[in-house]
Amino acid sequence: MAVFACPQCAHAQVVDDDHIGKNATCPKCKTEGPVNKTVADDSLIEQHCSEMSIRKADNVQVGVSQMLHGGGLGPPDATSLLWLEWIIVDDPRLPVAFVRVEGVRAIRDTVKDRYWYYANFDLRLTEDSVTAWESRFLTFNVWGDHVRTLSYTNVNRNKMALASGSWYLGSETEGNMHIASIGYIARVRTREGKVLHADTEFILREAKRFSEKFTEEDLEPKSPKKE
């Protein structure tokens, strides 16, 4: 098989041998690049994935936390033997990175019977050319099912970006079943107008550790259904 490796965002994929020696357009960032000669396996893709890594934390109990008047969060409503698992994907190709391991929790608003997914996170920008970025969080329940893909976009003005995102949560039941999230930088826009995309191969592999049914289509955010 032949392999196309994008010279801009490093996305790699196997293509037909007929394309060897020709240029191809990257499906992620639309940059053109040559198709490499035939390789015996997917080693090029595996090599790129090995450059990426994850960080984990599990120091918050599962359950819905109460938002307090005046700010802050109280402990979960019910004590659980389970802990939230937060995973952050580090991609050294992208000029935006999470400072700490942080993830999504379920909260109850000060308004009765209104629930949210909530994430508070710190990002570091390693290049001055960054003008916008999008972070995403994949959420999973106690049964290992993928529940939501949450998206947060910011138009950058500082090298350090402290952000907090909240997304409508359908019900208290969904909140009580929330157990894990995978956070990653989905795309970055530069001052020159280039859009750099996350490589999905590694992220898909991590998501499938929770849900074997997870597909690349699940990486795209969808509007929640209100009950």
Compute the CA-based radius of gyration.
Answer: 19 Å
> Which range best describes the helical content: under 10%, 10-25%, 25-40%, 40-55%, 55-70% or over 70%?
under 10%
Global mean pLDDT: 82
Distance between the termini: 48 Å
User: How many domains?
Assistant: 2
Catalogue the unreliable spans. 39-49
Number of strands: 16
Order of helices and strands: EEEEHEEEEEEEEEEHEEH
Model description:
The protein folds into two domains: 2-48, no CATH class; 55-219, no CATH class. It is built from three helices and 16 strands. It has helices spanning 43-49, 172-177, 200-207; strands spanning 2-5, 12-15, 23-25, 32-34, 53-61, 64-67, 73-76, 83-90, 96-98, 104-108, 115-125, 130-141, 146-155, 160-168, 178-190, 195-197. β6 and β7 form a beta hairpin. The radius of gyration is 19 Å and the shape is globular. The chain starts with a strand and ends in a 20-residue tail after the last helix.
Task: Reconstruct the topology from this structure.
Blueprint: E1 2-5, E2 12-15, E3 23-25, E4 32-34, H1 43-49, E5 53-61, E6 64-67, E7 73-76, E8 83-90, E9 96-98, E10 104-108, E11 115-125, E12 130-141, E13 146-155, E14 160-168, H2 172-177, E15 178-190, E16 195-197, H3 200-207
Main features:
46% strand; 16 strands; 3 helices; 227 residues; single chain; mainly beta; 6-stranded mixed beta sheet; 2 domains
What's this model, at a glance?
The chain is built from 3 helices and 16 strands.
